[in-house]
Amino acid sequence: MELENKDMSLPQEQPEEAPREWDVAESCRQLSGYLDNILSDPSQAQLDTARLCQPCRELGEALGSFRALAEELVGYSIGLSKGDLSQAVPESGSGLYSGLKNLHANLKHLTWQAGQVTKGDYSQHVSHLGEFSDAFNDMIQQLREREVQLKQEVLRAQRRADIIDSYTEMLVELLDQRNEWMLVVDQMTREIIHCNKRSRDSGEGGAFCDSCSHRLPIQPKLLEWEGTERYQVWEIEEDKSGCYRVISFPIEWKGRSCCIHIVMDVTSEKMRARHLNDEIYQDGDTGVRNRQFLDEFMGQVLRERRDATMCYLDLEGVGDINTFYGRKVGDAYIQNFVEIVRKNFRSGDTFARVKDDKFCLILTGNVKHLIERKMREILTAFQRDDERVFSHRCNFKYSIVEVEGETNMRTLEDLLEEAESAVNRQKRKKQKKQKKSSMMDFEDW
């Protein structure tokens, strides 16, 4: 038994054989398949170069370098196709990249040019992009011509209004034969003693006004006029009856101290001028003034050294609403905010959209206390509308900057930067407070 046990022994493990080297024909087939895989999907292409025959290994290593180049090229081109212009330009000097690098540079420059065009710079010109260059340049040319046309029409409309303002006393004698109203009012009794719209047999006196079909809706305001100037041009605008330009001056009328009011209906002129003006200076999405109007308006305010109060408003939550509920709901959220602000201020106050969800309100004079009270009321009204936006918490931040015209040295950009910094401080303070509250809740838990 001992002899038998000595003769019996465990089998010894045989060392694994190294992979057998392919012959030339098989190596060529493997290289051909590897190249096909690189061209279809370089990230998945694989080749064991150690099994290639010696004459083919150098080619296999070269194809490995080509696979890395192809994989980088695919990633770069996919990024460009998705509009990612911030990605780094590959450092490889391969000619395969030259076209994409040129395209990348052209797209980045085109993006900058498009931004300049939105700011009103129509001197931009695009080249080296074929038919797209022609279409883009045609669009810029049309925008330039349209702006020139609109400004010319605004100028013509303004000149027509100036001509109406230049009517003088020598036209009074002709008004009986024209469409303008001419009312003669006794300064003592406030009685209308003559009107060019009365019938010839109605006699003197104001009794005919009660039944006159041409009766002016603004007549009560004319009777209240107590102008002390020798000659005054003023306007009365009514929501329902339109806009009237009035030329008023004192006169002796048949031995009585009177005043004459020459009244012109300029409703259509005003509407036409405002329409043309709004096309240039109006934000198309919200209907309020745009940044171009704000720049020109504040430029005039600062040049004339007028006192003003600026309220900078930062609407919160727009990005989240656009992401979770869509752009249409986000636009409704912004429009709801705009309408609430407009209801709480006069139509003559300047309310402009600076950019995206940033707005600016300008009031004449130093009225910071008034704006602060109004902002609290607006925030309360705005947050009552939570349910309108899928229970999203409606909120905005604001800061107020007063401009003392005589001593002010700041530009509009300085004022906006100061206001925006104040809003950002509010946001950081709120975030710290929320973080502290969360930590306290965690500790209590």
Task: List the SSEs and their pairings.
Elements: H1 2-7, H2 24-40, H3 54-81, H4 98-118, H5 131-165, E1 181-186, E2 192-195, H6 219-223, E3 232-238, E4 242-253, E5 256-265, H7 267-281, H8 291-303, E6 308-315, H9 318-325, H10 327-343, E7 350-355, E8 358-364, H11 368-383, E9 396-403, H12 412-444
Antiparallel strand pairs: 1-2, 1-5, 3-4, 4-5, 6-8, 6-9, 7-8
Q: State the helical fraction.
A: 40-55%
The main sheet orders its strands as 2-1-5-4-3
- CATH domain class name of the largest domain: Alpha Beta
Question: What is the number of domains?
Answer: 3
Structural class by sheet pairing and helices = alpha+beta
CATH architecture of the largest domain: 2-Layer Sandwich
Mean pLDDT: 78
Overall spatial form: elongated
> Could you state the CATH homologous superfamily of the largest domain?
Reverse transcriptase/Diguanylate cyclase domain
Run of helices and strands: HHHHHEEHEEEHHEHHEEHEH
CATH third-level topology of the largest domain:
Alpha-Beta Plaits
